[in-house]
Design brief:
InterPro entries: Met8-like (IPR028161), NAD(P)-bd_dom_sf (IPR036291), SirC_C (IPR042518), Sirohaem_synthase_central (IPR028281), Sirohaem_synthase_N (IPR006367). Residues 120-146 form the Siroheme synthase central domain. GO terms for molecular function: ferrochelatase activity; precorrin-2 dehydrogenase activity. It catalyses: precorrin-2 + NAD(+) = sirohydrochlorin + NADH + 2 H(+). The chain is of the alpha/beta class. The chain has two domains: 13-113, 3-Layer(aba) Sandwich (Rossmann fold), CATH 3.40.50.720; 148-210. It is built from eight helices and seven strands, in the order βαβαββαβββααααα. The chain has helices spanning 23-34, 48-55, 84-94, 134-147, 151-169, 173-182, 186-190, 193-212, and strands at 15-19, 38-42, 60-62, 76-79, 100-103, 116-120, 123-127. It has a five-stranded parallel β-sheet, with helices on both faces. A two-stranded antiparallel ribbon has the order 6-7. β1, α1 and β2 (38-42) form a beta-alpha-beta unit. α5 packs parallel to α8 (193-212). The longest helix is centred in the last third of the chain and has 20 residues, at 193-212. It is elongated and about 75 Å long. The N and C termini lie far apart (54 Å). 21% of the residues are buried. The chain binds ligand PQ2 and nicotinamide-adenine-dinucleotide (NAD). Nicotinamide-adenine-dinucleotide binds next to α1.
């Protein structure tokens, strides 16, 4: 059995603590920030980019060593210092809470791990090897990035709009399903947005006329 359950957690406004301020902490903070999490870093030193985010008020920096401070306010806790014993003491404190815990050098202690991810607006493609090989996850992510380019951001927004429109305007569930399938054709992905909408409007008109016959 693989015990990892893939979910998409809404992180907006969630309190997160990141212990350590090096490269790994920066990567974890970066992806948490993109989702609107409220992050506190505990570390005597931080990278220049983390310092920039602090100055811009995007994150909160407690300039101190981690020495067993209370972590109970936090929903997500990441330990990413370069000291194994410090990371372990974060774990000991964190496990008293109900938080999601990520100990960067101890996959066995994590109750969540982070996948490698391609984001194209609302489209999110994640790869996990369940900790077996982060470099394989990264390689597959790069491959997926080539296959699913930036055009997917607009395309997925278009599909969302069309979905609402079709649900409102087409009564027959089988016909709706056929339209949804048709809109998955690569022609719609590749077309510029205006042309894509014209193609979809023409398709809807056609279907409606058929429905009236
Ligand atoms: C996906 C990604 C997400 C993110 O971190 O945001 C992520 N690691 C990434 C990068 C990365 N990781 C490592 C390097 C150095 C090169 C190398 O050694 O390969 C690089 C940098 C690079 O590849 O450039 C090494 C490494 N990783 C872990 C350990 C500890 C250990 O295994 O003991 C060590 C050895 C540390 C040591 O040296 O001691 C552990 C974990 N790393 C995971 C996720 C989780 C499992 C994911 C999965 O496989 O499902 C897990 C279990 C926990 C977690 O961190 O959540 C991210 C973006 C990738 C991308 O998209 O490019
Ligand atoms: N999970 C992953 O994806 C992954 C990938 C690579 C490395 N790692 C592991 O992550 C850890 C961090 O790696 P890094 O490259 O960011 O290290 P780094 O040396 O760049 O950064 C370490 C940071 O921890 C801070 N620190 C040290 N002692 C501290 C304390 N007592 N309290 C608070 N902060 C303290 C330092 O000031 C520094 O900011 C290492 O254990 C490494 O093995 C994990």
């Amino acid at each position: 059995m693989n015990p990892h359950y893939p979910i998409h957690v809404k992180m907006e406004g969630m309190l997160c603590a990141v212990i350590g301020g090096g490269e790994v902490a920066q990567r974890k903070v970066g992806s948490l920030l993109e989702c609107g999490a409220k992050i506190t870093i505990i570390s005597p030193e931080i990278t220049p980019l983390l310092a920039e985010w602090t100055e811009q008020g995007k994150i909160n920096w407690k300039r101190e060593l981690y020495q067993g401070q209370d972590l109970s306010p936090y929903f997500f806790i990441v330990a990413a210092t370069n000291h194994r014993h410090v990371n372990y003491s974060v774990y000991e404190q964190a496990k008293r809470t109900k938080a999601f815990i990520n100990i960067a050098d101890r996959p066995d202690l994590c109750n969540y791990i982070v996948p490698s991810t391609v984001k194209r607006g609302r489209l999110v493609i994640s790869v996990s090897t369940s900790g077996a090989s982060p470099s394989l996850a990264s390689k597959l992510r790069r491959r997926l990035e080539r296959e699913f380019g930036q055009e997917y951001e607009g395309y997925v927004d278009f599909l969302a709009q069309m979905r609402l429109k079709v649900l409102q305007e087409i009564k027959d569930a089988t016909v709706r399903k056929q339209i949804f399938q048709e809109l998955l054709d690569d022609r719609y992905v590749e077309a510029p947005s205006l042309q894509r909408e014209q193609m979809a409007d023409a398709l809807l008109q056609q279907v409606k006329q058929r429905e009236q016959l």
